[in-house]
Amino acid sequence: MLAKISLVALSLCFGTAIAQGSGVHPSYVSIMMRTDALDAEPITRTICGGVVVDEKRKLVATAWHCVPNQRSTIEKPGVFSVGGMNAKLVTFSPEADTAIFQVDDLKGLKAPTIKSPKKGDVLVASAYYDAFPVTAQTSDRFFPPMSVQVTLDWEGKVAAVTNANRLGGEHYDKITPTQFKWIVVSGSTAPGFSGGPVFDKSGNFVGIVSNINGGFTNVSSSENVAEMIRTIK
Predict the structure, then answer these.
(1) Integer CA distances (angstroms), 119 to 61, 89, 156, 201, in order
(2) Fold for domain 14-103?
(3) DSSP category for residue 169
């Protein structure tokens, strides 16, 4: 099994205007929320990753489970943002665990090429943390002290490409099929990778990190994103 998470960048400075952070792919965007919306200390923090998927229409995709349940939270200025900017939710699919937002300005970020991987391909992903609270559960595992900015890299190998949702490793063939394509990758990512883009070794965009199940990471295919974009009027 090939899987690894490594610390690749550490700084105490702010990221770019679109809240990207150092050490991540040029298409990576941070999904941010004021924590007082979650009944916590009122600080804006990165909660998930996202990826530029259409430059002309200024579209950014992330995982649907990264989006607040209350639409009012999304629409309230300064509470939920994509890349540090207010964003409009234009389409989503809970079944594909994918949401697509439109922003005002991509700040020069470019959309990557979409490509489908095959079994055995090595995939990579990154997660940028502008700050993450250390708890008893997390402090010994993945996360740096609060207020430290950090980028984590992850690498895994494709175990299967299928249309079964919420997969469980070797049990992927026993799940009811869906209309969406999923990629099962060996090894678990850490919290914070959700919504971020996954790439092949050539830098092609293959999917969005969704969830962890049985030692595997489930990735919603970039083909799902492409199909959802086609439905936007």
Answers:
(1) 24, 33, 11, 14
(2) Thrombin, subunit H (2.40.10)
(3) G
Q: Which of 212, 176, 221, 178 is nearest to 192 (CA)?
A: 212
* Complete edge-to-edge strand list for the sheet that includes strand 80-82: 80-82, 28-34, 44-54, 59-62, 98-103, 87-93
Closest C-alpha among 72, 84, 74 to residue 16: 84
- Residue ranges of the domains in the chain? 14-103, 122-230
Same fold, 14-103 and 122-230: yes
Across-strand partners of 65? none
- Single out the residue of 180, 127, 173 nearest to residue 154, CA to CA: 127
Cβ of 91: how many Cβ atoms within 10 Å? 17
Partners of 128 in the β-ladder? 151
Going by C-alpha positions, the residue among 57, 110, 112, 65 that lies closest to residue 87 is 57
Reduced to 3 states, what is the DSSP secondary structure of residue 227? helix
pTM of the model: 0.78
Pairing outcome for strands 216-221 and 149-164? unpaired
- Residues in a beta bridge with 209: 219
> Sign of dihedral through CA atoms 218, 223, 225, 227?
negative
Distance from C-alpha of 87 to C-alpha of 75, rounded to nearest angstrom: 8
Fold of 122-230: Thrombin, subunit H (2.40.10)
User: What digits encode the pLDDT tens for the residues 173-187?
Assistant: 555 566 789 999 998
Res 91: pLDDT: 93
| pLDDT band at residue 143 using 50, 70 and 90 as cut-offs | very low
